[in-house]
């Protein structure tokens, strides 16, 4: 099963400057493991020591915020698009 992952510019140095990746996984948790296999070090940027997504990283599955779905246990289907969006603050 293939899921398209949109990688933000700050993380593209870990993906050989690729803005999109095709990864496998039936959930966001599995997708994170697939990302780590193909891009070592990326999971540490996205997750804390307990494996939870960092507060400043937002994941969207087909434009739906996973915080309002099942979090990192959100199911994925073949052809889904996952966007990784770093939070931006300003004042």
Query: Percent helix among the residues?
Result: 10-25%
What is the count of DSSP helices, taking H or I runs of 4+ residues?
2
CATH topology: Ubiquitin-like (UB roll)
Compute the gyration radius: what is it? 12 Å
Average pLDDT number: 94
Per DSSP E runs of 2 or more residues, the count of β-strands stands at 5
Q: How do the strands of the widest beta sheet line up side by side? A: 2-1-5-3-4
Question: What form results from the Cα inertia axes?
Answer: globular
Q: Would you state the CATH class?
A: Alpha Beta
Largest beta-sheet characterization: 5 strands, mixed
What is the CA-CA span between the terminal residues?
Answer: 42 Å
By CATH, the architecture is named Roll
Q: Please, what is the CATH homologous superfamily?
A: Beta-grasp domain
Strand content: 15-25%
The oligomerization state is single chain
> H/E series, N to C?
EEHHEEE
Tell me the number of structural domains: 1
Describe the structure.
With 91 residues, this protein is an alpha+beta fold. The chain is built from two helices and five strands. The model has no long low-confidence stretch (mean pLDDT 94). The protein has helices at 28-38, 42-46; strands spanning 3-6, 20-23, 57-61, 64-65, 81-86. The protein has one domain: Ubiquitin-like (UB roll), CATH 3.10.20.
Give keywords:
single chain, 91 residues, alpha+beta, Ubiquitin-like (UB roll), five-stranded mixed sheet, 2 helices, 5 strands, 18% helix, globular
């Amino acid at each position: 099963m293939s899921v398209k992952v949109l990688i933000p510019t700050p993380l593209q140095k870990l993906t050989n400057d690729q803005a999109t990746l095709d990864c496998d996984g039936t959930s966001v948790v599995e997708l994170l493991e697939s990302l780590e296999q193909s891009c070592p070090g990326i999971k540490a940027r996205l997750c804390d020591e307990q494996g939870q997504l960092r507060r400043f990283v937002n994941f969207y599955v087909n434009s739906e915020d996973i915080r309002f779905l099942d979090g990192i246990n959100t199911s994925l289907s073949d052809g889904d698009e996952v966007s990784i969006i770093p939070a931006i603050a300003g004042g």
